[in-house]
Hints:
This protein is an alpha+beta fold. The protein is built from 4 helices and 2 strands. The protein is globular, with a radius of gyration of 13 Å.
Amino acid sequence: xxxxxxxxxxxxxxxxxxxxxxxxxxxxxxxSRRREVAAGQEPFAIVVGCSDSRVPAEIIFDQGLxxxxxxxxxxxxxx
Length: 79
């Protein structure tokens, strides 16, 4: 587990990669990572975001499979 500061830094760095179009596509397509995530998950951050299909958190923060726990809601309202 990483602390909140390091998690935020990791998200910011990923978003910078996304914005500069230098994403790490291997983080999503790597077969060994898929096998690792199939055995269990340990996301480093929770992201509550819009259900809009144009803004998937994993992509805009340039994170791979199992890195984020994403809750997508319509209207960004958390009850």
